[in-house]
Every structure is written in C-alpha cells, then in structure tokens.
Amino acid sequence: MMQARKIIVRGIVQGVGFRPFVYRLAKQYGLKGTVSNNAHGVEIEVEGDHVSMQSFIRSITHASPPLAFIDEIETKESSYKGYLDFAIQASNGSEDRFTLIAPDVAVCDDCLQELFDPADRRYRYPFINCTNCGPRFTIIQDIPYDRPNTTMSVFPMCTDCEREYNDPENRRFHAQPNACPVCGPSLTLCDSKQNKIQSDNILDRTAQLIKAGSIVALKGLGGYHLACDATNDEAVSKLRERKRRIEKPFAVMIPDRNWLERICTPTQEEISFIRSINHPIVLIRRKDNSPICSDVAPGNNYIGVMLPYPPLHHIVMREVAIPLVMTSGNISEEPIAYKDDEAFERLAAIADYFLVHNRDIHMRCDDSVGAVLNKRHTMLRRSRGYVPYPVKLNIHAQKNTLATGGHLKNTFCFIKNDFAFFSHHIGDLENYETLRSFTQGIEHFKNLFSITPEILAYDMHPEYLSTKYALESEIPVKIPVQHHHAHIVSCMAENDLNEAVIGVSFDGTGYGTDGNIWGGEFMITTMGDFKRIAHFEYFPLPGGEQAVKEPWRTGVALLNQVFGNEYKNVDIPFVRSIQTKSALAVIEKMIQQKLNTPVTSAAGRLFDGIAAICDVRASINYEAQAAIEFQMIANETVTGRYNYEIDTKSIPWRIKWNGIVRDILKDLQNNVPVSDISGKFHNTIAMIITDISEKIKKDTGLHDVVISGGVFQNALLVDKTVDYISKQGMKVYTHARVPPNDGGLSLGQAVVAMHKVL
Ligand SMILES: [Zn+2]
Ligand SMILES: [Zn+2]
Ligand SMILES: [Zn+2]
Q: Is 0.70 topped by the overall pTM?
C-alpha cells in the first residue's frame, strides 16, 4: 500500500546540505517525490511504502548534517501523485519568508584535507568550502539562501564547480559559495597606497612580510584583521602605536593546536571550546616564558587565543609557523573595517600591506570571544560563528519585538515566535560609524528574518544613543527596561527559568529608577518585573565618566566617605601619591558640593576604587582595566575576608562597605601583599552575595540565584560565588550562550518587554 506524505522541517535547514541529505536518504529507502526550500524551511513530498516512510522520517532527525539544527518536523497526509523519481527542486522565495540561517563556520576537515593536497584542484585555494563549512551570514544579502542572493553571485561557476554543485552525491551540492581557482574569488597583495605587489606566490610573500616585522591587513570572513608577528616586540609596539590601542590585550592566532600548550596552560574545557566549529577567541591562562611578547596582553594572566578558521588563515599560518597578533581592523574603538575601499582609507595609516580578495563581505562580523566560567563555555562577545543562531525561548511571542541594547558592547535583539535573534557585536555606540553599523544591522535582520517589530524595548538611560534611536522610532509600543533587570532576565532566559529568582547584577554602570547609577544590585526578579532588595551603599563618583577613566578619583571618594577630611592622614602610598595631583582640591570640592558627582552602587566602581587605593592603577586605558588588573594579581588560595555590614532596617537593604575599606587600609599599613588583599576582597564580595542570597531565601523561600553583569566576567569571583552559594544548598545560574556583560542586555530587554505586554 503506497502512502504520500508532506513533511515540513523547520530550523536551520537551508544552506547546510539538508536537501541533498534528504535526497540521499530518500534514494536509500527507495522513496519517490521532491524536496525543496521554502519560506518556512525544507518541504518534502514523499511517496512509498509505510515501513520505508517511517524509517525515512526517523533518519531525518537522527542523521542530519553537521550544521543543521532541526527545530520542528511537521508531517501530514498528502494526495498520491505517483512520482517516478526523487528530485531536488529549486527554491521558491515567497509569501511570509521566515527561515533560520547558519552562521559562518570554520573550514571542515574534508576541505582542509583537499586544501593541502597537491593533487587536488583546490590545492592552496583560500576560498575552498563545502555545504558543511564556510561563509554564510556574512555573505547573505537576501533570503532564500541561494547563490544569487549572496555576494558570490558575481562569480559564475566553471563547469567543474557547476558539476559538483548540481550533483546531489557531492559534498558541494548546492554549496552556495562553491568556487575554485578557475572561477572563484582571488587574492591581491598591495602596499598601503594600493600599489599591487607582483608575486608568483602571494601567500608566501605575505608570510615573508609578516615575518620581517610588517603589519598586514588581512581580509577575512567578517572583516579585516590587522596581523603581525606576536613574538616580535617591535612589530607589536608599532601596531599598538598606530592603532592607538594602549595596553588593551590583543588576540593571538596560533598555527595549530600544538601551539596551545607552548603559550598557555589550557584546561580540557578550554581546549574543547577553542576547537569547536565556531572557533572563537578563548581566554586561557598564559604560560610564563612563552615566546609571545608581554606587550600582547600586559598586566593580564590570560591571553585570547584562536585557531585559524577560514582556509586563507590556514595557509598563512602554515607559512609563518609562528603565532600572530590578529586584531580587528580598526582604529581604537571604531567598528571593524569590512568594505575594501573603507579598509584602505581607514587602515592605510596602520597596515604596511593589504592582503585583499574580491569576495565582498555583506555584513561585518567580529570574532567571538569566550572564556570558561563556572566550567561552562561562556560567550563574552557573541559574534562570528554564532550569529545568527537564535536563542530558543520557552514562550511563544504574540508580537514581534526589537530591543536596542545598551551603550557599550552593543547588540540588538529581535524576538519572533519563540526565537530570540540577538545580533553580532556592534560595538560601543560612541561614534557615527558604529551608530551606522547599528541601524544597518537592524534593517538587515528585519529583512533576513521578515520581522516587523511591534514592540520596542530600550534602556532607561536617557543619554544612550540606543535609547534615542528607540524614542525616535515609529514602532508603536515602546517599553523602557531597567538595565540590571535586563541583565538578570537575559540569564534567566538562556537558563529556561520562568519563576521568580534571586537576581544579582554587578556591573560598572546602569541607570536606576531613582536616577542614580546602579550596579551592585540584588533583585527579586521575574521576567516582567523586579523588586530591588539590596545594593551597595551609594558612594560619589567625582566627575562621573571621568571617575570611570581615572579610578583614583573613586579611591579618594571612598576614603573621603569613610574618614571625611581626615582621609589625608591615612599613611598609605596611594594617599601620598594623590597629594601631588593638581586636580585633588577640585575633586574634594566636587564631592563636598555634589558638583557633577553622581552617586553609584556599582560593584565595578567599587573594584576600581579599591584597586586605586591599593595602588594597582590610578587611571585606565581600556574599560575596566583597574578591576581586571586587580583580579589578575589576586592570590587565589588566600582564605581571609574583610568586615562588612548589611543594614536591613528598610528595603532596599544597604551593604555597608566601610569596614572593607578600613580593613584593607590596616592590611596595607601592615605590609600585607596586595595579591593577598585582592584575594581577600574577592572572598568578601563572594561572601556578600552568599549572605544576602541566604537572607532573601529565608524571607521568601526563593533558592535560585541568577548572576549577571560585566563584573561576572571575573572568573575568580564567579568560581568563588558559585562555590560559596552551592555549599548553602542554593543553585547558582550563570551565563553561557549569552554574554554576562552589556552584550547580552538586548536579549534581556526584549524578553522583559515581551512579558510586560502579555
Ligand atoms: Zn568543507
Ligand atoms: Zn570553479
Ligand atoms: Zn551592564
């Protein structure tokens, strides 16, 4: 008895070799019919006997291709048409176009094998790819994902490539970026004035230039990198100077896995993270005496390491055979350059040479950065290799939502159905270029996922450009979301938590509902609402933003708060050193008269101020530098703690940190090493979190603790917090797929807004 079925597969099923997989499966079971891409995913019409049909349907889920992600399979009866064969049909881009798209992934092992096989027709061809690997998100201009809708449309395939493309048995069947040296993109090497460098072997030549100390701009998957020899002090400092990037760590690309142990001490979790198909930059403890220049990540025990991911990197890395600094092609905090013209314009003063190619990048996408926190692969910057994979929500949105994110490390986020599409890393919304990247990105996502947002969520901070964008938008329903509420909900959403939790959000800055700067917050949190239960006692930030850049100001404010005018009699190196600062008198006046001096409860600022008092760092060159360096010097085995009090007379409770400052001064005067002081300070903060969580648990019965915010990128603090709280029989939830910092904010905003309109 012949049966006919119509099967619709939803998920990431386009551009990942799904149709040929279905084709081969149908052939294997002797079934007839068709498979095609449509606006919803993949549609299969299939005819055959009952038993084969059942096996076929089972295998669709169990044996799907590596990049595929099946969200749902719908099977219904269909009328028997008497197909004679099984065929793959062309896509039809129609009606409500909504389909998921795969991210750009690292070259697969099969392609890598061919890349270095002298007998292969793609030997050392830097654009080799197949349906299991290669560019996706960065080359798609429109959906459905077919070659004419990508930046590969300008390269007509040669007959060999076309044969592969049309052969369902071939690994390159419908591999949209399929190409070879005959028909595909090609490389050009130029100097910074765009003069072509003639060479029989451009890649060898590039490697020689890098080894000779040059800085080369390399066009990659999602934009330009600036590359130089990471073992050459002169080259690294030249790059710092030209890029105007002082002290902020550079990422390093290593030629192969064997180099990992030569420059750092990876754990098993870190090794599996760095080798995952997404190939992020992973922060790993660096080794002493490694050949990497100390100036690559000054004052940091960790180094950001990545493996080569596109074939171009593989060839270059084989040739140079040394680790390279591989940093975003931009000046300081601008977005990464990705168009050739702008790259030459913006990077000419930095790079000595340019290795470019003629496959356009449609969407810029920075490298992703991750670290192992609480034993989980945790994203710190979620971008290339992950975007636009959605985060699946356990609730179905009635209305499409857009959230505009925060100010620093901006991402935006759309919610449609039960998917949250949160964007690639946009950057700090502080210049025109980044703002343009933000608005273009939003338009691109709207088009790719056919989303017309009806609800708009944004941060409460009136001065954020993301807020201003939101207020000017024509989207009818606009919902402001408190910064730390968004942080906690972003972590709840990725951990599938729906019920009220004890939310702990520690970061550097976030606009509070009382107009003060929050950032050391304990909140009973639900998806749609929060109640502020406790926070660090407010302290002044003389000069606001200026205090963020100059933590010594915060140090003065903390001491002033504890000792009043007597603070200058405290005999520690910090107090001696600030006496010489001409701004000191002004700052004292600002504090006393509350001039341009907001107050804050931010844990990040407390770290800053304490780091300054301990003479670790007076002013910073990149975000959170003082707090990071204070963490880096910590003696992690020290067990002591400092005294604090929790004033519970009224809600919100206030965490009084005066005792901490007093104890630290005693330690400083007794010549306790700063590394021990840092260790004890970390213990104290973890204990405060535990203590307050327990108190809330006692009052409310809640026992799930959710920690989020930029301070929880601090691995030492996360590990200690999880350790202490777990011992009290409570469960701690941390981030993994969503960054704990402001890069994850947009997801939280979108989910909060969605619940507020329910
Ligand atoms: Zn491949
Ligand atoms: Zn070809
Ligand atoms: Zn934040």
A: yes
